[in-house]
## 1
Amino acid sequence: MNAKKWMIMFVCCLLSLPVLLAGLNFVVDPFGVFGHFTWYSFSETLNPRVGKTEYLEEHWDDYDSYVVGCSSTSSYSVEELNAYLDASFYNLIMYGADMEDVEKTVAYLLENDTVRYLFLNVYVDNGISIGGGEDDLTLKLHEKVSGASPLSFYGGYLMADPNYAMDKLEAMAKDTWLPQTFDVFDEATGVYDKRARDVENISDMERYVAAYPVFADYPVYPTELAATERCMESVAAIRDMCAAAGTELIVACAPVYGEYLNSFSDGDLAAFYTALGQVTDYWDFTYSSVSWEPRYFYDGTHFRNAVGTMALAKIFGNDDVYIPEDFGAYVTAETAADHAAALTNRGGGQDDSGYTREVPILMYHHLSEEGGTDINISTAAFEDQMRALRDGGYTAVTFDDLYAYVEHGTELPEKPVLITFDDGYESNYTLAWPILERYGMKATIFAIGVSIGKDTYKDTGAAIIPHFSLEQAAEMVDSGVISVQTHTYDMHQAAEYETGPVREGVLQMAGESEADYMAAFRADLETAKAQLEQGTGQAVTALAYPFGFSTTLSEALCRGEGIRATVTTESRGNTVIKGLPQCLYGMGRYTVTEISGAELLALLEG
Amino acid sequence: MSFTSLSFLIFLGAVAAAYYLVPRRWQWGLLLLASYGFYCWGGGRTVAYLLFTTLTTYLAGLLLGKLNRRAKALPPEERKAGQARLRRGKRWAALGACLLNFGMLYLLKYWPFTAEVVESAAGISLYVPDLLMPVGVSYFIFQAVGYVIDCYRGKYEPERNVGKYALFLSFFPQVVQGPISRYDQLSPQLLGEHPLSWDNLKYGIQLAMWGYFKKLVIAERVGVMVNTVFASYWDYPGSILAAAVLGYSIQLYCDFSGGIDITRGAAQMLGIDLAENFRRPLFARSLTEFWRRWHITLGAWMRDYLFYPLALSKPFRRLGNFARRHFKGTVGKIFATSMATFVVYFVIGIWHGANFRYIAFGFYNGALITAGLLLEPFFVKLRQRLPIRWEGKGWHLVQMARTALIVFAGRYITRAPRLLAALYMLKETVVSFHPGRLLDGTLLTLGVTGFDYAVVVLGMAVVLGVEWYQERGGHARQWLERQNAFVQWLGIMVPLLAIILLGAVGQNYVGAEFIYAQF
């Protein structure tokens, strides 16, 4: 081939590159606009505006109501709204959405569906800017919403950076049940999939701030609310469109982290919230005691799902849920100016003693007359410890007390302590129970399901310390002194007796697929729950991790199976927080050894 | 304008198209215009430094040419006295131009370092002007000084047309990073008329693609890992440090030689052959040979304009006589040249930058090569005694490995953030190597994935395979030419896709997911 022909071929190759790129983007379809390899969670993560529009185009029939707004909108639970209003909500949160995006989206919704309720989240950021008219592939609105030319819209996605398509292929291989950075949306509800974040252990402030250092010294960048007027024009347009369509509009202002609120001037804030009142009545959660508690936030601009639960309970008058007294106010045109003025009168930080408590958990195993090891202490020592607790003014609480505290705000006794026993030894029945009763204490026993009533390891015949029977368990539960909860059914395996592959606590085994692992874990939990609930008549809601091993996935699976508290063997105390049920996951426990009652008190009082 | 930017490709395409469309006598003018456009685009006002060097050396060249002609025209009876007088004049002219330009280079590149050293040693704080570094200053000044010295030596007639001379210094593919060209080789090509040659276009494009492959696919990729390790070298054991230095050696070679291939490829598209700057340095069997294969034009410049003048200078001749009298045998004979060699490598080290590290690097190379020269008689005797096939392939491999190891150790010095850090890292590599750490997953925490390592390893395998073929006398582009159309098509598409998918599109791409990292 001569050089001239080579050059022609070279130029043809160059020209074929755009065609190849278009082909790649068309087939792999990372933004989900061509309908191939549909994976809404992935495409919505790349661009929620476009991804969710594509999703709705296929699912109009599933919904009759919508939640709209920027990313903080995600923490309003669709399930709770559905229950309060007997509706079918879809949460259309779009990160960074300004009110013009929302207005266009609402127009599109009303045009395509008969909408019963529209829940509009107005966030203080909506006053910063509006109408950026984003061209970025990851930020633009769908042409069906924006009215842009379909040619340039689809053309843009055909010519998208091939990395997006490559990322999708890679992500398809790496996909897991829990969300990862590339699939953060829950498809059916439209919210950020927070299954992992909502089981992370949130306890004392020091550990929380160490995990989320942004809260240690929150950066404040003075910001102007320059777009308030235009934002309110869009809110008014939304109000009018809803009125015309017969859609009921609910407007709520999301809780804002206190330090973040300091980014704005008092004048701007007052103007923003007054102007909103002139346009529509609204629920305002922007500022309250919640604003100063970092543990109620994922980061400075996103409040936790649990806070969304409080807000909805406030709006719909659900007294069952804990709601701080100063949280949420209904604002009308008449009250807006006064309310907005009050907003500018804010404190700075606060004392958390009104809504947090320290609850130490003690961990015991086996008791015997002679005692002598860390997991087998003498009855004498145990009795001395119980006596000391009673005399020291401690009240033993149960997990039910903790649920009531975090979910409903029911107060705990002055000095609460939670006593637990692992494994379910018969000595708990014969020795510990009478002593507990004698000193007015209560305890929770985490029994290994497969060992209940056994003095040999499973079917091996190998002798082990005897375990109490289901009948004995029921007897203890009936007394009101003991609660029997689960230590898993058969995930507390002893390597020396097992013949097949051995699981380390509840952890996934090497070579086990995620699906197999999840099935095994769920089956184990369901067996354990059924066994105990049938045997004792008491609901199983707490779990102690065998050997203390746990993962985010195991926590999420527990939560999915109705487990509301999990304990580990990490030696630390626990802060429990009203309104934040997730503080009961991954709790720490103190191992109590053969120490005197006085030493135990010293340990508890640190 | 970076070679790896899309704007450069468009610029190059436009210049090449215009170059073959305009009347041929305008071609050099177009190149001059394009070159200054290119320089101003990237360097803005720093073009003043380029102009300064161009004008001073242009005038010095003219003056030297005039003095040379006058010397030749002297009648025989005045020749002796007249030539001495003219030689003084020539010396002043050449020295003046060199001092002005090296002075400028010193001010730009070495003065801040001098001031720092003076301040820490004597506590005197010296004024350091805040100057923008002009692109390619080390290259065009050396090229210009070479021209002045050649004029001084009367090697050729100086250029009379200032525009034509300006093109020699500013030719856009090479102004950024060399090669350091010679006037008598480059200028006739720049000024000549070039009809459209499909072969040149094709070879140029292929060479540039090869350069892009090395630079974008290999160097940029491995550079991420290198930066991570060097940024916190104290966190890693010797084996990881050694892996990072190996990565850096790969990065440096692929980046520099890749850049030169792009330069030479772009020039070839315009029908201009630039001097070769790399000749497969990894196959060098000694450190001296390495420096004859690595950055060739710098070494050649040093040889012609530093080594010979130095070795032939009066002080060195005196040193030679002294050595011959006092040392026995070969050592006495080669002592003076060895010392001149040491100075040359020392200067090469410092040429790279103003820093104790580069001084140490120069010293390292100079000392090893000089020691090698001085110990040569001993090695000769040793070789005669040992029963090894000194011309066999095995010994060649040993020599290559030895040279690579020496160069590798030198890389610690040039890449470490400080000289002491380099010494620390060398020490760690020797005393706490911990080879197990290479396999425990640490390598995957350095900002690059297993896939990236695979790309680098495969990429290097391709580079070394091609170089091995060339080392044996093969010509890769001609080999490709002999293949059928399909293979030739693959020869275009595979590198194109590799460069685009594994190289170019990786730059500046931020997956949307990073927005969500906090969730």
## 2
Amino acid sequence: MIAGVSKFAPDQWIAWIAGFFPAVLSIFSLISVFLIRDFTGELLIKPISGFIGFFKRIRNGNFKVRVEMEKTDEFSMLADSLNHMTRALDERENLRKFVSERLFENIKKNHQLSDSFIEKAEMAVLASDIRGFTSLTEKHEPEEIVLTLNEYFTHMCRAIVENKGVIERFVGDAVIAIFYQDDKLEHHSLRAVKAAIAMRENLKKLNEQRKEQNRFILENGIGIVSDQALTAISGSNTGRKVFSVMGKAVKKAEELESLTAEFSLSKILVCANTASNCQEKIRFNELAERQTIFEVIYETKQG
Amino acid sequence: MDRNVIIKRKPSGPIIFLTWLFLIILPVLFLNSTLSMMFSLAEKSNEKLSRNELINEALIFKKDLEIPEYLNREFAAFFAESAKKANLDAEQAARLLQKKTGLKPTLVIEHGNDTASIESRFIDKSVADKLGRLSDFFTLKLLMKINNQPLFPALNPSNQKKLERFQSKAAREKLVADADLFFQRIFGLIAPIPCSPEKTMVSVSSKLGGFVYFYYKPFYKITDKNKSIKSGLFFMIRGRSISSTRVVQSAIKAGKSNLGREVTFFDSELNDDKTLELKKITGFTSAQTGLQLRTTMPQNLMTHIISMGGFYPERLAKVRKRLPLILVTKNRAFLIHPLKKYQQLIYLFEVFFVAIGTLFFLRAFFFGVDLHLGIRAKVSFAILLTLLMPSGLMLTSYVSWQDLNDRAIEIEAENLLQRKLEKIQDKFNLFQEDLQLSSYLLSEKIQQNLTHGKIESLISRNLQNSLAEELYLDFPDRVVSFENPKSNFIPLEKEEDSLRRLFAKGVFNSFKCAEEYKNIDNLEEGIDLFEEKFLVDSTFLSSLIANNGKLGSLEQSKTRNVYSIIPLMNDSTGKNMGCMMLRFNRLEIVKAFLKELKPGLAPEYTEYSFYLRDNEDLQLFNELKLPIPEQRLKIALDTNRSMYWQKTGQKLETFGIKVFPKTPLLVAARQVSVPTEESAIGALKFLVPAFLFAQFIFLAKIIRKIYLQPIQELALAAEKVADQNFEATPEIEDKNEFGDMKKAFDEMVLGVAQKEKLSQFVSKDVIEAVGGVDEQKLKPGGEKVEATILFAALEFFDQQLKENSSKLLLSRLGMFIEAGDKIAEENAGVLDKVIETTLMLVFRAKKPKDDTHALSACRAAIKLKDSMAEMGIETKMALSTGMVISGRIGETHGKLDYTVIGDTVNTAARLKNVHIAEPQTNIIIGPATIRALKGAGRMKFIKRISLKGKSREFPIYELIELREKKE
């Protein structure tokens, strides 16, 4: 007799596998799709998101940021270009320090700013100078002189900028600032006078510090003239250009400033125009010696 | 401090690990497990398909193990070797036989021409006494009976007359009966010697103890017309002289080449030692060498071994460890999957794949995934990476599905066939039961009428309506038989008749203890099956019980007769009175069955042709004729499976219906077309790559549109900006991240344009300082250097400003600045600043104690003067030389001026304002500058002046011209 019992049933086994196989495959491929997405994302999406982050920081005014990536493809070429551009932006920020803020605003407003730009505007010109600076340069080391000047300018400029003035230029120890007319702000003359007073106050504080440090003290004078003046750009089309305020106002302000050495106690002299513009807010005293020149009278904070 | 944006294409560790796992490792494991699954599946389904083959082989093996078969083989081989054996005398033949085959004949008789005389005789001495004298006369009669001598013309004319005596049938019968009787007596045989030449005959001898085997080999002389008997050798071999080991060895050798035969014993795995129970006697096992079938030895060999004193099976369970079994093995090579031979190659590829993949991901882990490829190539790479997974999965599933599909189809087809077979088998079983029922009803009638003794008419009436050929009634004291005149009656051979009687006796005897059979469940416990009274044929009895209601055949061989055997019982006493047997022709039964089956045959069978299997031959039963080569049909039948021919794409479906529990008798077959490979699955081979390629193109197009284009636009615009084209803007209209990028980019371009504009308003030194990477250069600071300062002013500009249009004046100033800038640069100086209409030019000493700056300054002054004069513009200048502080001056974090300061500057500024009465060049020069000129200039003294802040008076000169050295 031949008999045998087989526990193996291939048809059941195949049926089971056939049912099981697609489910396993689907789960498997689903996970794989997510993983491959991550992986190819590294290759294709990561540079994009990197650039987006880069642009975000640029827009926040961080021009020091650079894109760093391996030089392999168009992305790295783009990154190079962007880095160049960012450097240009960084340079622009630095260049702004060397030119009048007014110029930059004009360029910003109108990037097609023509070479023959002329603007006639009401303004107050503030001129300030350090007394006897020439002799100081001879007496002291250049490092000390530069340090002193930088301290001084830092204090002066702060006062000007706080009163919405624009640094027109530095000429040696002198600083020329302009207060343009702006309807949104206080009267430009008043702002100039306030800035002058603040400058004097700041100088006083600076000198107190310097005394403590046993360094020489500084004295300055300020002249303010309110007038109509030209703001213009001149220069070659391709080469060097100049943006400056032209007209008598600047010269007059410098003259007033040089007069402060002799005539003024407060060391701030203004023209008649300025004085009348600020009559309600500031007390003035017309100089006895020179008519139409007014001295600003103010009380120091200490009294 | 803000750090830079670092774009490093480097996925995080876990992502790399998971991607590696899912893209490299898991697919490989997946592939491996799929392959091994496929391999084992293929092996197992091949095993399943091979089982019938093994069963067949086991049956043949069993048959080969039977001693008559063994002797047939041995004698056939012995006589095939040489024709010279015709001339051997009995003693030589006996010696030679023993030498060649190891068989030790007890008796050899050689006879001469036309079986007329006995030439020689060999009798083993140890049995000679037992046998007594062998009558030549009867011996020759027996041999004549065996070789059918009367049918052959006499070789020797003198013998012709002798033979003629036996021409009549009656004489022949007398001869046979005499010979039978004589030999039965001489050898103590229980039955006459069954007769046919060249075929081993078996009988049981009481004198010699146990089985005796006879073999007769005639030698013929064949002429053109006649075939005559020249001589012959008659052998008798005692069963106990046959070595079982040789029988087994011979049977093993007789096997097919692709199937292994072995004799084995139970191994331990089949025994449960704790319960001492046999798990299974026969069964399939999968071994290292292949698929194996283990089963028991044929019963008569077992009996033989027992009678040889091998062991006595008191209880099968007790001796099972010593029970020899046969083992058939199908070589493993026939079971494996076709891909299996490429397994090593696949493994190699996998190792390569894993190595490359792992290297790639390790690189990704340490150095990122960046490649030195353009963005297009990267996109392609990314898409390929994305498609790698689905394509791999598609390929894997394609391969496995195709394989699974093939297997499933094969198994399904087999199951279908099996179901079809079962239906027919069931019907046939019903048909048999009907037959058996009618026999039983007849037996009941006979039983009732037996005591009245009027059964003849009853039986002949019933027989005429029956399929049976003959009816036998065996009683303890007599045997009665009735022929069915309506049937194709063929008288029963003597041999089978004696066997039939034995069975009837066995049935009669066995039912002596019918009481004991009442409780069949306790059969094994209650009855000792090895008691003498049951030894007649226990297999028959057990099959009678097991196949209750079925027809039985008397022996294992395929005879034409089957029997319905019913014991006759006395109703009142319950005692066995006799045995009724109905003899049927097996073929007739099947024919009758088919006749009944055919009209009601389900449509699914109509395509099949039915064959009847008569011994080894096949006969077509119905009219349908299939163009099936008979050989293939036989193979299909033997292996009991569907056959498939690749060439014609045709498949032969066969199933054999086991009409009786032996080999298939009724065979149904049909030929079906198998769909060739160019089906849907074949088309997939092209569709899958085409689909993937299309996917690739599609993805590439989309990515190009939404991804590559904006980037290219950005890169293009950036290139333009680098070429100072500040109008450039990337043409992106998207509102997504690229739109944001465009906005930011435009702002940056604006900023760069502003920078370009602004840089026009500052000196070269400033631009250099600003452009440098050194942040320190932009902090306030300074150094002392020697320099010459040149102040140059437009004369009367203020007055002109009033009078003329400011635009004209500004353009003049512009020309002045342009000339000043250009000339300063030519003479190694710098246009430091413009104070309204005054230019301040600085000429720094490039190294200490270098005076050339003064000369450069004077040269610049004269050149500027001249170039302005050409345009009719009056200028006034002043020069001063000395130490200055050069540096960046201004607020710490705000406005700055890169300039020089000091007394020298102030002096120059003041000298510029000195009025000269009658100016020639209007260039005022101080003593320090003159010294530095070292006599290179011609000067005119103007006057001594006192300057503000200076203690001493100061002589001033007007620079007239320069005495240039030849250079």
